[in-house]
Amino acid sequence: xxxxxxxxxxxxxxxxxxxxxxxxxxxxxxxxxxxxxxxxxxxxxxxxxxxxxxxxxxxxxxxxxxxxxxxxxxxxxxxxxxxxxxxxxxxxxxxxxxxxxxxxxxxxxxxxxxxxxxxxxxxxxxxxxxxxxxxxxxxxxxxxxxxxxxxxxxxxxxxxxxxxxxxxxxxxxxxxxxxxxxxxxxxxxxxxxxxxxxxxxxxxxxxxxxxxxxxxxxxxxxxxxxxxxxxxxxxxxxxxxxxxxxxxxxxxxxxxxxxxxxxxxxxxxxxxxxxxxxxxxxxxxxxxxxxxxxxxxxxxxxxxxxxxxxxxxxxxxxxxxxxxxxxxxxxxxxxxxxxxxxxxxxxxxxxxxxxxxxxxxxxxxxxxxxx
Amino acid sequence: xxxxxxxxxxxxxxxxxxxxxxxxxxxxxxxxxxxxxxxxxxxxxxxxxxxxxxxxxxxxxxxxxxxxxxxxxxxxxxxxxxxxxxxxxxxxxxxxxxxxxxxxxxxxxxxxxxxxxxxxxxxxxxxxxxxxxxxxxxxxxxxxxxxxxxxxxxxxxxxxxxxxxxxxxxxxxxxxxxxxxxxxxxxxxxxxxxxxxxxxxxxxxxxxxxxxxxxxxxxxxxxxxxxxxxxxxxxxxxxxxxxxxxxxxxxxxxxxxxxxxxxxxxxxxxxxxxxxxxxxxxxxxxxxxxxxxxxxxxxxxxxxxxxxxxxxxxxxxx
Lengths: 371, 318
Fold this sequence. Notes:
The structure holds 2 protein chains of 2 kinds. Chain A is α+β, with helices and mostly antiparallel strands. Chain A has helices at about 1-15, 25-30, 65-80, 140, 175, 230-235, 320-330, and strands at about 105-115, 120-125, 130-135, 155-165, 185-195, 205, 215-225, 230, 275, 280-290, 295-300, 310-315, 350-355.
């Protein structure tokens, strides 16, 4: 149970803001939570240290004043004092050990596509909306912060990425202060990625789909659809009991829980009723088939990206060794630490298609050979 | 005299007020954004990847024929509201229009007799042509499909074609017709003569602008057993089935749970399973405009090619 608690704390830290704050008291408080506590794996209650993000907007503002506030907000963020004005940080070069940052995308849905052989397959659409780097913590500092796990050693720093800009008067002061360093409006959602120091990114850098290229492989992690407390038939696909023939109160029960003999007990990990879904899941090694630069959309293999439509998805370079080998052998490193539009002289095309993907504006596929 | 002061049960008040507190994390969809919020962020002036709001045309500007939506049901999006997304639907529609610019997809309905030729590696001429009656047409967007049925060598054959499959070479409508039912799967339980069509059938011409003829034929089904309980679905294109079914089946058919008469009056069900008329108008406007543009480009291309050929011919003559 203790393990569960710690795990849940770590998961929550993916979005938590005090990773960034250098407040030692906060860190100390969280570390105390390692004691064994009875509780649920997923809970609706926020932890005690979680400072309130949202602030209730006062209702007595006149519509003219509300309009004025909006104008002021837009003007202040039009030309903010960006940290990028000091000049970009030195860029590292890509090595097989490099771990770049990812992006925080939104799942749009599933659409079929065809290969040039005429094979149909499903793709998931992920939109990268308004992403910025909010903070970078080098490994020395990161290894002292609370989200750190011992087996990471001092290899990784962390990058906090935010998505979806909001108006600052909706949030508390402490939350707004997190974005002062990056010079961007406060974000609706934050997430953290582990990066190696050679992939460090300056706070305030915008991220878009061009962070990835067509043909690359990515991992997607997201929260699955929640089903609430479910029985054994729905949660684990057990058969249940018979519908009739004298069956009493055992139509959807699981049957026996364990045997007798030497190990006369219920084994650990026995599949039982409980909370289903709403859990972090990772799908690895998904190929990027197509990139739409106009709407910032990625087309990714398959329909198994977790979560419902319009959920947040963390998209990052795959950790699968055999997919990364490709990049090493071909000498085709991804943009480091991310894509900068200044690097390309030609205008960016609206669409990138994989070589194997069928382009809908090309002629139909035919096997008839012309004589 | 003042009324005696009543003791307030603070616990009770607290508990009753709790329901008005905003929930911190709603359980099931806490990882999901609502459609309006996503749209707001897409157009927000604070956003760095801002999508400019396009001024939507007044639907009365473009005169889209009323039948247009029935001719192109594949452009209507999936109606379940929590799986819809504007950008995905738009990208999907663009792909469809691109494909339609290359392959000529004619107007057809369930009940029309069609011929489809498709690239096939294993066929003798690397290409396969199939003639049959369209018994179903469904799917949204790029998932749209239709099913053709024919009897070949005394054996019923059905083939399902994805409409936007790039292997499709040609779609012809040999006989444009409508039937009384939206699906004709009952032909499986009818004599084969109802679904037999010659593979070398010649197209029946239809004058331009004429109404699509309705074939009001009543099919006589085979006696039971059937693949489905046809007596329960109120089929219009079938002769009365009373001779085939037992008294018990007739009684069962009248049961309210099977008749489901309330579905006729369920407005919410109708709203949930269909798309708003105004939205359909917008989509159809967009598609209609694009289609006209594509046709113009095609005509221009043909004209240019014709000119080139004419020039070549002149040079040859010289």
